[in-house]
Design goal:
single chain; 452 residues; alpha/beta; Rossmann fold; 4 domains; 5-stranded mixed beta sheet; 15 strands; elongated; cytoplasm; GTPase HflX; ribosome binding
Length: 452
């Protein structure tokens, strides 16, 4: 067994005026990594003023050993912390027991409560707010009975602002969950209708997926026009051309859709909430409405931070694939981002080491633009095939309207005029080609009917 603790004095002096927190983590074996929980704490507005780790089997009463909890209490006092953030799934009794050993007023926050806190801070649209509320309720539901007991023992209100607990609390939570799901279903239905209208107009839908902080928002700015095309989508500050990309988790929570710049096709690119390690199934499901833009895309770009160590990249890829392939049927293109941070030769080594989980990745730097032109080509290659068609039409107002429509909904390779005819050679989605053929057939039939 091995333990570690530190007061983190440098952090205490260099932080902002936010809440002060000690971060802690227990692992069964090996060394505990606190890098992600420190990032999450910063994203939630905490100043990390101390840290503690322990390597041992889980203690049923305290998560950590009781002696380590005493050490945690002393560290909190020394650092004058307001909260203890535990990078584990801490049960309600464990939370209560640890809190009882800490100075009065010090909050105990587990990993998932912290993530929900961040989500709540980022939720600026009705859909995002509903999804956060749903996640909070789903987190609370299995703990309701235990928390009722704790509330009676400690004479405190329920956790997470749900009020005093009584026999009806579980029923009330289920009722709220049902109502939120109904409202989200209504919002999702409207979103699917908009996606259907876009597909009918010949537009391909491409989704950006990947772990938070992989550079998805930066890549979106590199690929897309400035104008947000979905009037119901949230526009995030980190998508402004004048804004810097923040080195912070969860800078994007809702979805933002923008028109991407491709050579032939009209493509709408959607950026969504980033994945994060060790998210429980109930939390992923709570954001199903947001993830629908990934699951129902024509193509998914899985963005991975190539500056991370190989094993971290491998874990990211495996976890992302588990999330994506559960429901997604669209092709997935892996994008190794941040190659500007790599030493010479490192990219080739990582390609070789990760070929089993990323057999044909495309490497880019969203920051510098390296590889982005190749990524655009790859996107067009991977999207569903278009059909090639050649229409010969009589020159008329109706025909010119059809030619204009084909330009708007496909890629016109050649348009020629000879005498009283116009020939249009174009590529488009099969549905667009079928509609163009039908309109051309109607025009051809109209003179015959008139003469008859």
């Amino acid at each position: 067994m091995s333990d570690g603790a530190g007061a983190g004095a440098a952090d205490a002096d260099s932080g902002t005026d936010g809440r002060r927190a000690v971060v802690a983590k227990r692992v069964d074996s090996g060394a505990a990594d606190l890098s992600e929980i420190r990032q999450l704490a910063a994203a939630a507005g905490y100043d990390v003023v101390g840290e503690l780790t322990q390597t041992r089997t889980e203690d049923a009463a305290f998560m950590f050993g009781e002696g380590k909890v005493a050490e945690l209490r002393d560290l909190v006092r020394h650092a004058d912390a307001d909260a203890v953030i535990i990078d584990n799934d801490v049960g309600p009794y464990q939370t209560f027991n640890v809190g009882g050993k800490l100075p009065e007023g010090v909050e105990v926050v587990d990993r998932f409560t912290l993530i929900l806190e961040i989500f709540g801070q980022r939720a600026n649209t009705r859909k995002a707010q509903l999804q956060v509320e749903l996640a909070e309720l789903r987190y609370e539901l299995p703990r309701a009975e235990a928390k009722a007991s704790l509330a009676k023992r400690d004479e405190r209100p329920g956790f997470m602002g749900l009020g005093e607990y009584d026999e009806s609390v579980e029923r009330d939570i289920k009722r709220q969950i049902s109502g939120i799901r109904d409202e989200l279903a209504s919002i999702a239905g409207k979103g699917e209708a908009r996606r259907g209208q876009r597909r009918d107009s010949g537009v391909d839908l491409v989704a950006l997926a990947g772990y938070t902080n992989a550079g998805k928002s930066t890549l979106m700015r590199r690929l897309a026009d400035e104008l947000a095309v979905d009037e119901n989508a949230e526009r995030h500050r980190d998508l402004d051309t004048t804004a810097e990309s923040q080195d912070m988790l969860f800078t994007t929570l809702g979805t933002t859709t923008r028109r991407a710049e491709m050579e032939k096709r009209d493509v709408l690119l959607t950026d969504t909430v980033g994945f994060i390690a060790d998210l429980p199934h109930w939390l992923v499901e709570s954001f199903e409405s947001t993830l629908d833009s990934v699951y129902r895309a024509d193509l998914v770009l899985l963005v991975v931070d190539a500056s991370e160590p190989v094993e971290a990249m491998r874990e990211t890829l495996v976890t992302s694939h588990d999330t994506l392939y559960e429901r997604n049927e669209a092709p997935v293109v892996t994008v190794f981002n941040k190659i500007d941070r790599l030493e010479p030769g490192a990219l080739a080594d990582k390609r070789a080491a990760l070929s089993g989980v990323a057999p044909d990745p495309i490497a880019v730097s969203a920051k510098t633009g390296a590889g982005v032109a190749e990524l655009r080509d790859r996107v067009e290659d991977e999207l569903p095939d278009w059909e090639r068609e050649r229409l010969v039409l009589p020159v008329s107002d109706e025909a010119m309207s059809l030619v204009s429509w084909v330009h708007d909904h496909g890629y016109v390779a050649e348009e020629t005029y000879a005498g009283d005819q116009v020939t249009v050679d174009f590529e488009a989605k099969p549905s667009i080609v079928a509609r163009a053929r039908a309109k051309a057939a109607e025009m051809a039939a109209a003179p015959a009917e008139a003469s008859a």
